[in-house]
Design goal:
Helix content is 32%, strand content 26%. The protein is built from 15 helices and 27 strands.
Length: 624
C-alpha cells in the first residue's frame, strides 16, 4: 500500500530529528572526553597517579593553575575547608566544572571598571593602590613584577589589553604543556582515572545493609557488564540494566504532621545564635557551622527556623519559605571522627526541632537546607536601586532603602543578638564579602574612626563604615554592590539568594554554650549525616536484577529525601525520572537526570518538597 505524502514528510522529519539528536549527543560526548583529558593532564602534571590525592591547599592551587585556572585564595578556601583532609581526582573534576576559566571579555570588563575614561590604560599608581589595598592584597614587590614587564607596560601605564592577551596565552600554554606531557608518556595515558580504590567525598563507606531492607523475591544477580550506551562521562562507571519506581502521595497538611514539643522556657536555660545560608554563583550553598558545649548530661530541645528580620511593605520575604534543618554530631577524639546523634525532624510551621537527652561534651551543629527553595531564580528587575546620593551640602549620604538593607544585614551578622558586632562576628562578614579577615591592628583603626562599645561595632558604626567605602570611591557604588550581591541581595535590594536563620538550644539541667566556628559549604560530614539519617529511618528497595543497588526514601516533615547505595565494586550510573510527580520541587531542578555513584558508597539522589504547600503533592520517581 503506497504511503501518502504527509506520511513520507512525517517520516522524513522524524529521521532528521533523530539524526540531529544523535549528532548532538556525539558532540556532547566529544566535548566531555576533551574536558576529562584536560583534567587528567593537569592532575598528572602535579601528582604521580590519579589514585594519589591532593593533600594541601598549595597542591590544589597548583593543579588548578595547570588546568588553566587562576584561583584566588577565596576560591581555594571554598573547596579546601577546615574539615578537608584530601581531595581526589573526581573532586578535582567537579571543581573544574564549576570554576570556568576567565575569558578575555570578562577580564576587559573588570579592567574597564577601573579605566573610567576607556583609554585602554591604567596608571601604575592606580594599579598599586588597587592591588595592595583591596581583595587579596599583593605586596609592592609582587605588583612591581607586573609593572616591569615591558610587553604590556610603557610610560608608567599598564596596557591592559596586551596584558589580557598574555594572560590568556599563558593560561592556554599551561594546558597545552600538560596535554603534551600526557601524550608523550604512554604510562600516564594508560592509567585508570577516578577513585576506584577510595570512597567518593560525596558518599560514605557501607559495611552492612540496613535492617529495614525489604528485598523483592524475584530479583536476579546484577549483570557484570554495562549496557552499550556511552556513559555521560568516560570512566569505569557501569549502567545497571534494571529499574525501580516509587510513588508517595502527600496531603496538603502532611508536611505539618509532626508537632514539636517545646520546653518550659521559664525553667530551662537557653543559648541562641544566628546564622545564614548563602547561595553561591554555581548554586552551592554555604552556611555557618557551630560547636555546642554541654557541661553535664541533660534533656535538651534544639530548634532552627528562618530569621524573621524587618519586613518592608511591598518587599517579598522569600527566605521565610526556605526549609531549614539541623544535624547534631558528637565530637569524639578528633574532629574528623564525628558521630551522628540525630537531626531536627519534628516540624511546627517554619520551626524544625529535636528533643532528647545528650551527655556532657562537645557537639557539632550543622545547618542544612535542601536547595529546593533556595536556588538561582531569574527575576525581572525594572531598575537598579540607588545606594548613595549627595545632599545639598555636597556630602555623600546613604539612601533610605540602602540604610534599611544595612540594618537587616547587621541583624543577620550579629550572631549573638546583642546589638553589637564583635571582631569575630565582623570577620564572618568580611570573609563572605571580601574573602579575608580583619586583624587586631585593623580593628583598632576601626575603633578610632567608628562608633564602638566595649570593643564591638555599633549599628551606627557599621553604617558609617559603609559610607566611608562610598566616599573612598567618590560615590561609585560598585564596591557596595559587590558586598550586597555576595550577601544574597539583587539589584532591587531584595534578599533572594540567602536565608538568615536562628538556632535556639534549651537545656533542663545546665547552661548550654553555642559558638559559630566556620562559614563554608556543606562538608562530607554533613553529607554522611544526611545519608545515615535516611538509611536509618527510610524505606529501602532493591533495584530489579541489581541486588547491589539499594534506594532509600525518607519523609521528614515537608521534605522527601532519596539516597542511592552502591554495594558493588564498580561505579554505576543511575537514571532518575520525576516526570510523573505533581506539585513537586526537586533540588536538582530537573525532572530527568543521571547520577554517578562511587563503588561501596552511598549518596543523596535528590530532595523533594511541595511546590504549593496548600495543595496535595505526588512524588513519583523511576530509576533505571
Amino acid at each position: 500500500m503506497a504511503s501518502s505524502p504527509e506520511n513520507n514528510a512525517s517520516l522524513s522529519i522524524q529521521t532528521v530529528t533523530r539524526s540531529e539528536s544523535s549528532q548532538a549527543k556525539k558532540s556532547q560526548h566529544a566535548e566531555e572526553a576533551i574536558f576529562y583529558m584536560n583534567c587528567r593532564a593537569a592532575y598528572l602534571t602535579v601528582l604521580k597517579s590519579s589514585l594519589e590525592n591532593i593533600k594541601s591547599k598549595e597542591q590544589l592551587s597548583l593543579v588548578l593553575q595547570q588546568a588553566g585556572r587562576n584561583p584566588s585564595q577565596k576560591t581555594v578556601n571554598k573547596y579546601w575547608t577546615s574539615q578537608t583532609t584530601t581531595l581526589n581526582f573526581d573532586d578535582f573534576c567537579t571543581i573544574l566544572k564549576k570554576e570556568k576559566p576567565a575569558t578575555k571579555p570578562e577580564l576587559l570588563e573588570a579592567f574597564g571598571k577601573i579605566d573610567r575614561d576607556n583609554t585602554g590604560y591604567i596608571s601604575h599608581d592606580e594599579l598599586y593602590k588597587i592591588l595592595t589595598t583591596r581583595g587579596e592584597k599583593m605586596t609592592q614587590d609582587e605588583v612591581s613584577t607586573i609593572t616591569k614587564q615591558v610587553d604590556f607596560n610603557c610610560s608608567g601605564k599598564l596596557d591592559y589589553n596586551k596584558f589580557c592577551d598574555l594572560y590568556m596565552a599563558t593560561s592556554e600554554q599551561c594546558c597545552k604543556t600538560a596535554r603534551e606531557k600526557l601524550e608523550v608518556d604512554s604510562r600516564l595515558r594508560q592509567q585508570q582515572f577516578g577513585s576506584q580504590a577510595e570512597t567518593s567525598s560525596e558518599g560514605i563507606a557501607v559495611s552492612k545493609p540496613s535492617p529495614r531492607l525489604s528485598r523483592k523475591t524475584d530479583h536476579k544477580l546484577a549483570s557484570t557488564k554495562g549496557d552499550s550506551r556511552t556513559p555521560s562521562r568516560p570512566s569505569s562507571a557501569q549502567s545497571c540494566k534494571a529499574s525501580i519506581s516509587t510513588t508517595i502521595s502527600m496531603g496538603a497538611s502532611s508536611n505539618r504532621n509532626t508537632k514539636l514539643i517545646e520546653p518550659d522556657t521559664k525553667e530551662w536555660q537557653c543559648a541562641q545564635s544566628k546564622g545564614c545560608f548563602y547561595l553561591e554563583e554555581d548554586g552551592e550553598i554555604i552556611s555557618h557551622k557551630y560547636k555546642l558545649h554541654l557541661p553535664q548530661r541533660s534533656t535538651v530541645c534544639i530548634t532552627i527556623k528562618p530569621l524573621n528580620v524587618r519586613q518592608v511593605e511591598g518587599k517579598s520575604c522569600h527566605w521565610l519559605s526556605v526549609d531549614t534543618a539541623l544535624y547534631i554530631l558528637k565530637e569524639n577524639e578528633t574532629q574528623e571522627n564525628l558521630q551522628l546523634v540525630s537531626f531536627t525532624e519534628q516540624q511546627n510551621k517554619e520551626v524544625s526541632g529535636w528533643k532528647g537527652e545528650l551527655g556532657s561534651g562537645i557537639y557539632w551543629l550543622l545547618p542544612f537546607t535542601t536547595g529546593c527553595r533556595l536556588k538561582k531564580v531569574k527575576t525581572q528587575i525594572t531598575g537598579e536601586a540607588k545606594l548613595v546620593y549627595r545632599g545639598e551640602d555636597g556630602e555623600l549620604a546613604l539612601t533610605k532603602e540602602f540604610r534599611a538593607a544595612l540594618l537587616d544585614i547587621f541583624e543577620t551578622i550579629d550572631l549573638d543578638g546583642n546589638g553589637l558586632l564583635s571582631l569575630e562576628e565582623y570577620n564572618f562578614f568580611e570573609l563572605r564579602t571580601s574573602g579575608e579577615k580583619c586583624d587586631e591592628e585593623a580593628w583598632a583603626v576601626c575603633k578610632e574612626n567608628f562608633d564602638m562599645k566595649k570593643n564591638e561595632l555599633t549599628r551606627q558604626g557599621f553604617m558609617d563604615l559603609n559610607l566611608m567605602e562610598a566616599n573612598d570611591r567618590e560615590g561609585d557604588p560598585s564596591d557596595l554592590w559587590v558586598t550586597l550581591l555576595s550577601l544574597g541581595y539583587n539589584k532591587a535590594l531584595e534578599m533572594t539568594e540567602a536565608c538568615p536563620f536562628v538556632i535556639d538550644i534549651y537545656a533542663e539541667k545546665c547552661k548550654p554554650r553555642i559558638k559559630a566556628m566556620y562559614l563554608e559549604a556543606g562538608s562530607w560530614q554533613l553529607n554522611r549525616a544526611i545519608c545515615k539519617s535516611v538509611v536509618n529511618k527510610g524505606e529501602a528497595k532493591v533495584m530489579d536484577s541489581c541486588e547491589n543497588i539499594i534506594i532509600y526514601t525518607y519523609k521528614a516533615g515537608r521534605r522527601i529525601t532519596s539516597v542511592i547505595e552502591n554495594k558493588s565494586e564498580n561505579k554505576v550510573i543511575i537514571h532518575v525520572n520525576n516526570e510523573q510527580s505533581k506539585n513537586c520541587l526537586s533540588n536538582r531542578g530537573l525532572t530527568v537526570f543521571a547520577v554517578e555513584v562511587a563503588p561501596k558508597s552511598m549518596m543523596v539522589s535528590q530532595h523533594v518538597m511541595p511546590l504549593n504547600e496548600q495543595e496535595e503533592w505526588l512524588y513519583n520517581w523511576q530509576l533505571k
